[in-house]
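Model it.
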Amino acid sequence: MSGMRTIVGTTGMIAMLGLGYGMWALISPGEERRKEMIKNLPESNPMRMEETRKRNALVMQTLKEAAETNENLARGLGRSAK
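Modeled.
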């Protein structure tokens, strides 16, 4: 009886793995769709990519300036103006 239970359990697990792989293969996009999706990404637009680079440079500059200052800017955010 124990051997039969092992065979049924193993067969069930193999069937579930096969079903999962089959569903994944049906849902995942094909090579043509994948290439189309990559072509339509924002990073593939040169103008958009340049805007992103500029914005990242500004953020990095701001972080650098904040790291070099001795003031704790977070403490002053909740206070009223003097």
